[in-house]
Protein 1
Amino acid sequence: MPLQIFIIMKLDLNDPCWCGSGKKYKKCHRTFDMETEKYRREGYIILPQKILKNAHDIEGIKAAGVITRGILDMMAGEVKEGMSTQKIDDLVYEYTKDHGGIPATLNYHGYPKSCCTSINEVVCHGIPSADRFLKHGDIVNIDITTILHGYFADSSRMYCIGDVSDEAKQLVDVSQQCLQVGIDQVKPYTRLNNIGDAIDTYANRFGYSIVRDLCGHGIGKEFHEDPEVVHYAQPKKKGVLMVPGMVFTIEPMVNQGTYKCNFLKDGWTVETQDKKLSAQWEHTLVVTESGYEILT
Ligand code: MF3
Ligand code: CO
Ligand code: CO
């Protein structure tokens, strides 16, 4: 019976808190547990305590994020017409190793490279290749996840190769704004689904659509954890409650045309069904007592 389980697991007020802070329960997460119990009764999903990160974890993720960000900054000066996407991957691998990290995608469920390079109609998970070259007018997403001392940080940005069309530039800009609009919704004790509601509404103003087949995700001690962060609108769903210590990515994939995707036979590459352009920006962030902090 759920009630009994709750009572058995309840900590004594002077016990060390379940979060690993070393503080007494009554001085740490007791108020939090009482508060979230109220929301649970109202119909929100309260995810298990084990997904929450403590101050030590946050520092670890942030340190991994310094490498991820360093790579994305470096790429702004590196990507150019004629460069192979394999060259991008080589730079990611070297930079990560030089800074003591591990590229998280390498050998992840068999993924063969150190980053994803997704060009034009590729929505995500494009595989770097020695015979794919960046062309004038391309838009490319570079997606980097770094592991440092067991902690993961995931971020991606768009890069324009030479002069891109006005349409492509607008998609790149609006997709970046979509990420920001989503981030603006991150606040403790509110609906996680506010993020997708806001992003979808914003993208639709420009006639764009939001990919539904792929989501943001919890992250920290593993690459992909709970919660699942959808980027499209689900205004009727209460769903998961955001609480301090939750760490997740927001990474909306914004399409010029249909949101529908094709999954290619290489097992990874995802493309738009109508072959129109797609763009994506991503950050890893933590829910704080007052709002959020970006960790990448
Ligand atoms: N970095 C991607 C994400 O944002 C995941 C890439 S997994 C890979 O979640 F295996 F395709 F590289
Ligand atoms: Co990513
Ligand atoms: Co991600």
Protein 2
Amino acid sequence: MAISRDVTAQVELERDLQTTANRYKALIEASATMVWRATPDGSLVESSGWGTYTGQPESAYIGYGWLDTVHPDDRQRVTTTWREIFASQAAGSFEFRTRCRDGAYRWTLTRAVPLKDASGQVQEWVGTDCDIHESRQASEAIRLQEERYRLAMLATQDAIWDWDLGSDTAEWSEGAYRLFGYDDAERADTGAWWKSKIHPDDRERVTTSIKHIIESQEHRWSDEYRFARADGSYAEVTDCGFVIRDAEGEALRMVGAVRDISEQRRANAALRASEERLRLALQAGRMVAWERDLKTGLATRSDNALQLLGIGSGPISLLLDNVHPEDRAHVERFTAYGGALSTVEFRYLHPAGPQIWLTMRAERVEAGRIVGITFDITERKLSEEQAWRAANHDALTGLPNRRLFHQRLEQALAAAERGGTSVTLLLVDLDTLRDVNDIHGHDAGDAVLREVASRLVEGLRASDTVARLGGDEFALLLTEPLRLEHAAKHAEVLLERLRQPLVYRGHRLTCTASIGLAAYPDHHRNPYDLLKDADIALYRAKAQGRNSAVVFAAEMRSQTERRVLIAAEVRTAVAAGQIVPYYQPKICFTTGAIVGFEALARWQHPEKGLLTPGYFGSAFENPELATAIGSSLIRQVAADLGQWCRCGLDPGRVAVNFSSAEFRRPDLAGDILSVLSEHDVPPARFEVEVTETVFLGHGTEVVPATLRRLHDNGILITLDDFGTGFASLTHLKQFPVGHIKVDQSFVRNVVQDQGDAAIITAVIGLGRSLGMQVTAEGVETVVQANRLSAMGCDYAQGYLYSKPMAGSRVPWFLRNWSGEAVESSRVLRLA
Ligand code: C2E
Ligand code: CA
Ligand code: CA
């Protein structure tokens, strides 16, 4: 029975074993873990789930075939580890990636345990393979997350803190201590330490605010305060934290970050200060700073734009709408491109004010952005304009001056040449402004000039120019369609208009004018030449007796050129003493005696021989030359006279001719008198001959005083060429004239022409009644002499008696002259 008991026990044991084995088998099947067995040298014998896991058939993975599914990157390591474990005969594990049934790799954990017999010899290896893919990925994710946080903490400038409220311990990020300069010794990880570092003035406020957050149900806290640095200074910080609460809302800890904003605060303050400076500078400079975004077209403007420009920030059209229409295109181009142009000036109509001038400067800072400033240059523009006006206009009349006139003339000529049109130039010279100045004062003269200016401007078009060239000279520039012939008519209209008297302080003032005209293309193209043409024509108008208009003609120029040429020759002739007086006697009709001589200028030309004024007479119209000739002649005449008298001869009175140009010299009377006294010639031996032109026109203001002074000193004043001029009889009354010479044009025909005879009779009568002597010039025949004598003429002068002779011949002539009364036809002869 013992056996049967043993058997029963054996059976039970086997059944138990079977049960246990089944239970394990079931367990293995139920678990996700694969179980395997391998030979002592590591060759896989069986696996409970490998085939299912990897899709490898059993025949493939048994032995070492399973290694084929290991990821190529892991295979070497797995093989090595696997061998090492078996060699060590101790349990081991390793992880690797396995290619699974779906082709994807999954992380797998393999553990191996040796089964040893009593002698410690390894019988076989058993082990497990677990799919750890998910957990491995999760922990990898956590590791990455932690790494990120760690790096973020390292990277941040902020001090991160984590404060356990229960234990009052605080954990600060590594950077936190560095931020405030604390080294290891000074660190303390408590909330109390933190509070102790808050500036005493801020501490109460900050601790109260954080306490309030903790006690309330709020989560977020933030504050700004000063936090002590290790060196004792304080940092300005912002601190922000979050409260972590348990399910009941009890605050457990706070996590937050402190940021040092000292630098930012300082930078902000500096920025504010510099912005303020900029604002004040812009205000002081009347400047607007702006920036334009080329993509959006919007302009941002400094605040003072509102005051200066009447607009704020916004589209560019805000500005452009107020820009003067003529400048708008400019400005638009400028604000669009910047860079290309560095500055633009334009007129701007301030919405609430007058027009102002602005300048804009800009720079393209990047492709789509232009930054610039706009500033008010109205004052500068005004003063520039004033300066320009002053430089280019005449202050009295407000007309353009000579300088601007030249510019306009040049422009007009260039335009006329381009356009095939015409330009007419009128030079207007007032005839008697000096008289007005002299008689009525300079205020009256100014009034005349202003009136003349406005009369000249009357009826002209905007394209025409009236300028005052200086003194009593004006100029008109008329452009197409006023061609020369029309301009000549216009000149006549102007003369008529200027002739009209104006009333100034109760006086009627008249100021006639002479006008010279020249035109392009009729005359010259060059402005200088055209002006010259007009000037020549003007000269002619004046020579013709003024108050007239003359159109330039080419031959005038040659005459003028000849005059200029002769002037140059005469200048040297005077200097060389080639101009000498010739003397022609004057005979008394009643006694036949010589009563005097007339000195006439002659040029002893080295090649051409003796020349009369017929050749060089134009020189007498040139003030400088006339003066030079005059001075030289007076000296020679005075010297001759002095010498004749010393020789006991009696030449009577010697007359010298003076042109009106000579009366412009400052002290003609004084000069004459002093030369006479130098040569001991009494003024009673001297006579001055003038024509009526001396009383008219330019420079006549000193004439009355000069004549008066000469007369008062005993010099006889003679009115030459009487009857040919324009002067009225009032001149005879007005000036101290003592002697009249009847012009030779009347004498020539006295016998044949009743009219001329009548004029001579009238002149003789006039002279008589005014107590003046009358001389007939140009007496060539005895018949003329008899006739004139019968008419009651006092003296005669002419070829009948003698041609003008050299001074050296006069003594001989005087000594040999024996005259008798004119009645007998024999009387006049040289003994
Ligand atoms: P005038 O003052 O009328 O002088 C008289 C002119 O008549 C002189 O001409 C004289 O030579 C000329 N003559 C005299 N008798 C006769 C005659 O019987 N028949 C003709 N056909 N002519 C006669 P001259 O010397 O050629 O002078 C011309 C003019 O030049 C003068 O006219 C005078 O206006 C001017 N002149 C001459 N010398 C001077 C001078 O020294 N100074 C100035 N300012 N003018 C002068
Ligand atoms: Ca004369
Ligand atoms: Ca004469």
